Amino acid sequence: MRANTVYKRAYNQCLDILAGRPLGAWPVSEARLAGLLAVSRTTVRAILASLDEREILRGAGGARALHRLPDPRDYFPDRQTETVAQAVARRFMQWVLEGDCRPGQTISALDLARRFGTSTTAVREYLTHFARFGLIERRQNSGWIFVGVTRDFATEIYEVREMFELRSARAFIALPGDDPAWADLDAIEREHHRLLRDPDGRDTDFARLDERLHRLVYDAARNRFMREFYDLIAFVFHYHYQWNKADERERNRVALEEHLVYIAALRSRDARAVDAACRAHLRTVRATLLRSIGPEPARAGVLSRPASGPA
Amino acid sequence: MRANTVYKRAYNQCLDILAGRPLGAWPVSEARLAGLLAVSRTTVRAILASLDEREILRGAGGARALHRLPDPRDYFPDRQTETVAQAVARRFMQWVLEGDCRPGQTISALDLARRFGTSTTAVREYLTHFARFGLIERRQNSGWIFVGVTRDFATEIYEVREMFELRSARAFIALPGDDPAWADLDAIEREHHRLLRDPDGRDTDFARLDERLHRLVYDAARNRFMREFYDLIAFVFHYHYQWNKADERERNRVALEEHLVYIAALRSRDARAVDAACRAHLRTVRATLLRSIGPEPARAGVLSRPASGPA
DNA sequence: AGGCTGATCTTTATGCACAAAAAACCCAGC
DNA sequence: GCTGGGTTTTTTGTGCATAAAGATCAGCCT
Fold it and tell me: What is the mean pLDDT of residues A213-240?
């Protein structure tokens, strides 16, 4: 049976709104509340009915009034406000990143469904969606194969990334001076200096900042294909990041320095300098990734072994 | 209930094999037959049992013998050998190309399921898969929207296409002289001359030849992301081709001429000439596409007005 | 030994029917 | 034109049946 997560999320959100209100009249129409919570009126009615039953609200229509303030026990726990699809996505990522999953390994949808406590349909839906990244492949009537980030995969992705990012950087320096992207760039630069001064931040601080900078550049291209491609890059980055903790501190420092050169080049609007800084940085990043993957095992053992049957 | 299309397809294929055999001994092991038909031994066993029941085969193991030749009535009709997934894909394409679908229109999975005579699950699976092209978008808890080939979409796709194709063409001219791609290129060139001499071929002849040439170039990049991107280009090309029949003959002639220049440049291995020819051709193609889309209605009505299709 | 065959058994993918959640629709009354 | 009530449709998710793949094993022939 389908879970009513939309209702619960919207209900919680509604409590937040009410929490800041004085007791008494609160004449908000169903339609207006629906717009506010970004849900349908059907859901709003369910919420109002529930609030009425709990005697938080009273009356109807223009005569609706806030009767008592909500307290923490009125809220639904966070766990219950997550869609099944979201839960599957989260748990799959977690499962992959925990490393139970090696390149060339087969993935059983049924097994994942049991692991995640959902139906196979939910898992299947996620896998078909995730397959767009090319990290998993479907074997007809058989199952899924985790391709993983092989050496070829990494090389190919970085070939495309270089093209896209150079192009985007060119578009970036062509942005008008009053474009909000420039302010974002300033903020990002400040964060870089902060992180360089205090390198003891959490692991994810650098990763997040890195993504923020590159996405900002990518967005300048105003091209949905380039933008979407960055989703893949980001995943590969995080995936690889999880696996290669060696020299992490030093690597991050180098990357931050390169970013600062890149940022300065962007601000100078000198196309040649931008190209150089971008190329240099991407070369470093690619080298790091390839090093963490290690040498390819003679091109044979990746896909040939698990394919014992006629597939 | 799951349909046994794999079995039926393999069964038909098996009849084909038997049709060319003399009556008498036919000692082919189950495992070998499984490899031959590219199915599991479980399916082979079902096929053998069926052939035995119909008295086409007799005996077992080394003593298996062909008792009578199969006749046309033994075959399963083609209609039944198609997977549900394949059927949905085919019928969706047909539905889109028939033009029941305008940019900005919502798509109901339930409606499609009824139309195609399948379950909603099959349709959903296909839609999530097809969404990778960006031609349709999912609205959470609501449905799908057919984005279609808008002016922005076309501009963005061609920006990427130019990057990819220039890169691929560069890779192409770096191929060793004995690479089979050169022979393919020769064959494609001959087809071009044939089509120019006899322009009364079927509509799809040109489309197919165009795809063959461009895919050949793309493959030279040895990059899965570029290769996959061509799937999208091909779809957009066919989609648009369906809608713009004006000046078709003349457009095709121009394209064929440009292709010949492109091919000559590739064979000359002159990077500059290749760039020029490739750029010139892509400019033409993009202009054609944009003309067929028509002017964008002031950036506002894209999603609000269901009218103003690509025709 | 070791690979092949045929038989039996187990597991997984595929596809559908169905239930509830949530959106979308219609409509009278103000 | 907005409000709120009732109704219809669609999406989301689950459970389940069957097709098909995969695993296991005893016998048999080199």
Answer: 94
